[in-house]
Amino acid sequence: MSLTVPTTLLDAAENGEIDDEAFIDCVRTSLPYAWETVSRVVAELRADDADYADNVVPPPGEAERGQLLRALASDAIRTGLEQHFQVKLAFQNCHRLAAFRLSAAYGPTYQRFVSPRNQLLNQSPELRDC
């Protein structure tokens, strides 16, 4: 799943730097499921006092799974989302997305979430091919 880049944004990129908000808008419109998932997890984080909130619901299909993978596998997209929402994102499997408060980024809860141990514990036969 690639980004659908408007001609005006592509022209701007070819001629130099682009506006961060234009890039984020491109991500929002190109990867709507990923945007919706990140937005929902961030809203859950902001509604609670916890250090993080996470998504445990698998995507409804392969297209949505691809959007989430694309958004979080790209350094530019992930960084753009983190800066836009002012959170630190972490990702496991094909759908386990967490948003951490910046004050908790790289703290013990974050370190546990991204640890090899938790990666292994978050596996199941249903998720091996995701």
Brief characterization of the structure:
This protein has 130 residues and is an alpha+beta fold.
What does it look like?
The protein has helices spanning 7-14, 20-30, 32-46, 62-73, 75-85, 108-113, 116-121; strands at residues 52-55, 87-92, 96-101. The protein contains 7 helices and 3 strands; from the N terminus they run αααβααββαα. A 3-stranded antiparallel β-sheet has the order 1-3-2. The protein is α+β, with helices and mostly antiparallel strands and 130 residues long. The chain has one domain (7-123).
The fraction of residues in strands falls at: 5-15%
Task: Give the number of domains.
Answer: 1
Output the number of helix runs. Answer: 7
- Principal-axis shape equals globular
Uncertain spans: none
Strand order within the widest sheet? Answer: 1-3-2
Q: Quick one: how many beta strands?
A: 3
Question: What characteristics describe this protein?
Answer:
single chain, 130 residues, alpha+beta, 7 helices, globular
Task: Give the arrangement of secondary structure elements.
Elements: H1 7-14, H2 20-30, H3 32-46, E1 52-55, H4 62-73, H5 75-85, E2 87-92, E3 96-101, H6 108-113, H7 116-121
Antiparallel strand pairs: 1-3, 2-3
Helix pairs in contact: 2-3, 2-5, 3-4
Pfam family, one: KH_NucS_shadow
